[in-house]
Design a protein that fits this description.
- The complex is a heterodimer of chains A (about 200) and B (about 475).
- Chain A is built from four helices and nine strands.
- Chain A has about 200 residues and is an alpha+beta fold.
- In chain A, a hairpin with a 6-residue loop joins strand 6 and strand 7.
- Chain B is mainly alpha-helical and about 475 residues long.
- Chain B has 18 helices and two strands.
- The chains are: A alpha+beta (about 200), B mainly alpha (about 475).
- Chains A and B meet through loops of A and helix 7, helix 8 and helix 14 of B.
Chain lengths: ~200, ~475
Amino acid sequence: MSDTPIDSSKRTWLIATGCAGAVGGVATAVPFVSSFQPSEKAKAAGAAVEVDISALKPGEKMTVEWRGKPVWIVRRTPEQVAELPKNDDKLADPKSLRKPDEFTPPYARNEQRSIKPEYFVAVGICPHLGCSPSDRFSSGAQPSLPDDWPGGFLCPCHGSTFDLAGRVYKNKPSPDNLEVPPHMYLSDTRLIVGDDKKA
Amino acid sequence: MAVFNEISPNASAGAKLTNWFENRFPTAFDAYRVHMSEYYAPKNFNFWYIFGSLALLVLVIQIVTGIFLVMHYKPDAALAFGSVEYIMRDVPWGWLIRYMHSTGASAFFIVVYLHMFRGLLYGSYRKPRELVWIFGCAIFLALMAEAFMGYLLPWGQMSYWGAQVIVNLFSAIPFVGPDLALLIRGDYVVGDATLNRFFSFHVIAVPLVLLGLVVAHLLALHDVGSNNPDGVEIKGPNAPRDDKGHPLDGIPFHPYYTVHDILGVCLFLMAFTAVIFFAPEAGGYFLEYNNFIPADPLQTPLHIAPVWYFTPYYSMLRAITSEMVYVLIACVVLGAGFGVIKGRMPVIFKGIIAAAAAVGILLMLNIDAKFWGVVIMGGAVVILFFLPWLDCSPVKSIRYRPSWHKYVYGVFVVNFFMLAYLGVQPVSPLGERLSQIGTLFYFGFFLLMPWWSQLGEPKPVPDRVTFAAH
């Protein structure tokens, strides 16, 4: 066997068929890997949600579901709105400059991160690892929070804290502020979450 | 074709039947001899050597109970939680099968952690058993995947939010992360699609890989032979053998160790059944209380923690804050500086080390701490694969290492327990510092092993294993 000279044309064909087979194998893998992607049904489920906010009182929060995620609508009191600029030096990104296209639509790139200063709309999912932060609206010292806590949100999983405009405090696991979803007001009491282009 | 053996017509019916099969399927008979009746295992095994057999037993328990659970379980986000409660309340003896499976998951990790620690103590990963160890580490990795995906199936609050956090870990990877997380979930949030694919992986894909790896682990082990508490090779070129060539320090696995292991199996089953019958939730450690609440995508439980067997790694994940990244950078600078100044190697390698360190530091400064947390968590498991080459001690077994090595291993164990404990607790400033120190020690233990394992004077290793007939 070992003294048989190498038939280079046969070897060329072996390499060629081997390569063709490999290409076929990879091509076959494509549909299987693609099947991991969200289905058409899952993609279609991202429809906008209309919310009636007339019953929301100052200092209260309501939660609606949009694309399977909690969306919060918080009606801040005038005092809470007035407090917001005082937090700026403790926040990681007070002006919402980091990845604004992902986290803050143009109409929310302000101190309150909202269209109307009173109403704050945000996706209630921590940008760190996807837990839903809990409400810590009352100010002052309390467990897991600093003594000069002005009110905001605390993520139970890894301890990220956010102010009442969903802005993350410095040196916390979350790199970003809470996401403000696309939204717009249809009237004073009707809000649509998931769409900001119509009309 | 193999030799065809004719048997005397006067032989017994049993012998004729055996001969009939052996002529037609000699592989099975050879396998029995190679792996059971003529597999010589060292005669000085102590109790640490029970955990391999126990791991196999738990694997069988998990497969059998799993088959029966699938008969009643519904992998559907709307039905899953209810179907598990249905198994618990309405299926005859369903509660027992379910508790066997859920307790089996924790038992698997207890047994496997002890099995790995045995390997660490007696240097069972050293040449020529590197592949045995690597297959074992791969089994550990597959087991973690299996446990994680299985935990989603009851579709309780912990299932849901645990999966949410772990899948989101992947989205921390730069560039491809978010798309990768989307591919894993199959939806924009953890949902029905995620539950279905995790079910498929949990009951088909990962068990197949696991079984294949177990076979590779055992075949490789039986090729090189078992290590023992003395770390003495009983089948080495100079090892004493009897006139048939069998090692004098070994005894056939069957019947000696099969019978011997029955004792261990009985003790294990006593503890295992005690947990199943009297404390199946094990105080919230084996089955977390929040998991008895159906998954709610709008509300995270106030305190979430993974199941106990993942908590050491979870602690390390949480330890990596943006401050900690600077400590890691300092470690890279120190390590690279030491390598460049003190290392005896060509200049070109020193240049490569310096360049790699510079690139690493640049990446560490520019990518979020969240990603480095994921790297540390993954690295804590991956580093185990390299143990055979990290340990440079002249002797294998802890018995003949310098006495202070025992303290190093002791601190390692205490540190591992501390990290596990901190991983269950809510975040606190003290806990964060402790877990950061623990993370540095964990990695220091492994990465500095080439240095510290060579220090000190090893004790003389005997030629034969230490064994007193009893």
